[in-house]
Every structure is written in structure tokens, then in C-alpha cells.
Amino acid sequence: xxxAPPAASAEAIRVNTAALRQPSLRATSHSxxxxxxxxxxxAEAEAALIEEPLYAGxxxxxxxxxxxxxxxxxxxxxxxxxxxxxARLSMRDLCLAAFEADPQAGAHAVRDLIAIRERDxxxxxxxxxxxxxxxxxxxxxxxxxHWLWHQGRMTLALxxxxxxxxxxxxxxxxxxxxxxxxxxxxxTGVVIGETTVIADDVSILQSVTLGGxxxxxxxxxxxxxxxVLLSVGAKVLGxxxxxxxxxxxxxxxxxxxxxxxxxxxxxxxRVVSRIPRDExxxxxxxxxxxxxx
Length: 293
Hints:
This is Serine acetyltransferase. By secondary structure, the chain is of the alpha/beta class. The protein has helices spanning 34-51, 56-64, 69-81, 88-101, 105-119, 127-132, 134-150, 154-168, 281-284, and strands at residues 171-172, 177-178, 183-184, 191-192, 197-198, 203-204, 209-211, 223-224, 229-230, 235-237, 241-242, 247-248, 253-254, 262-265, 270-274. It has two domains: 35-169, Orthogonal Bundle (serine acetyltransferase, domain 1), CATH 1.10.3130; 193-292, Hexapeptide repeat proteins (UDP N-Acetylglucosamine Acyltransferase, domain 1, 3 Solenoid), CATH 2.160.10.10. The protein has a six-stranded mixed sheet. α3 (69-81) runs antiparallel to α4, α4 packs across α7 (134-150) and α7 runs antiparallel to α8 (154-168). The N and C termini lie far apart (60 Å).
């Protein structure tokens, strides 16, 4: 069934990341105003209609027929996550309720889009991640599931989590707390556990696990501070903290606290270099280990 333009909702998202949320690491080269990003996305969509007529119907319905970024995200997610158990119309309504209710929801989506455009060298316009990037879709889908979780609608929250895992290969528990400006690159194989907390401006590459280290209950997952880079295949296990501006190297297994502004590597991970405080590994995406200390 085609999705009709949605009605607004008065419900509220409760994304509890206040304890870790801080200002952006740096000013970006693009406007952070939702209206400006939406206008640029629409302009890119209009250009794409001419570039690829075969895709024109999808672009028209997904972006140009929508009245704002929240509605466009809800429509796109509904088409990708809706299935036989929960039809697209119902999924669209859930997504829109989550996105429109919270005054910060648009800001989260804008910063997530900008994070990709700033950090991914293959990304030259907002249109590409909006339509195609699994990491962005998984993250915005998580935000819907997180809202449902805090509304006490745990069954639906877990359904959305399951669909994100099935469709995008990225498993994020609805109770996890994730800030904005987070870049999940590729997304395949990423696992984020229930009591994980991720601050703003973090970059996460494929096959990263933020998990527990056994069968213990309670607060058992990592706390990732602002500006951290988690490289390909990194595993951070247990209720441990990865300090601000740190870098976890590819395939590292982290079992202990990571000091701020350091690089850790190895199995088990150990500090292999210090990072100058003015360097921003989550933004530079530089996965070099350093020369050792």
C-alpha cells in the first residue's frame, strides 16, 4: 500500500543522553539548521530526478512530496522496515510519532547527516546517505525504537530492533543511549548492547561490538565518550569507559578503561600512542596506530 502524507503527532521522544551530550567537536562547513539541510536535500533530490528518471518516483515520494525532514525520514524508514508483521503505514506512523514529538529529533537527524558528509570521503551530498546508507537508517531506526522503549511499548521497540538487524545487519538495543553526530560507517556487524552509552560525535566502523563480558545483569556495557573512533572489528566488552577523543584500533579487544586521547590496540588492547588534544580521531577517521610510547 502506498503511504499517504502523514499527520503530525504530539508524543515526545525521550533520548536520555544529557549526561554525555556536549557541543560539537568543531564547526562544520555545512549549516546545522534543519531548514537549511532540508532545503539542500530537496535541491539534490530535484537534480537527481533529471540525472536518473528511473528512480524519479522514489525520490518524489520519499523527499519532494514530504513537508519536512521528519516526515521524509519516517517515510523512508517505513518503506525499508515495514514488513508482513507491521505494515508500512503502521511503521510510518510509529516513526513519525517518534521524530515529530521531540524538539531535538530534527537536530539529531541533521547532525547525523552532517557527520556522514563531513567524515565519509565518498559522500558528496545529503541525498546518498539519506536514501542508501545502512548506518544512518539503522541509527534513525534505533531512535524510533528507543522512543518506543521509553513509552513502555517494549514489544514494538524490540520488533523495530529486530527489523533493523534483519534489514541492515546492525543490532542496536532500544535501551542503549546514543547522542547525535554519530557516524556508523557501513554498519554491517555492529552490535550495541542494552546499557551502552555513546556520547556525541563518535565514529563507529563495521563489525564493532559494544557488549558485555559475561552473563551479569544490570549496567554491563561500555560507555563511549565524546569524539571516540572505534575502528573496524573493535570489541569493547564490559562496563568500562573509553575516554574522550580516544581511538580503538582495528580488531582490538578492549577489556579495561581507555584513557582519554590515547590509541589502544591489540588483544587484549593496550595503549600504543598518545593523541594530541587538538586532534579529533572521530572526525579525521585516521586509523593509524602511532609509533608507540
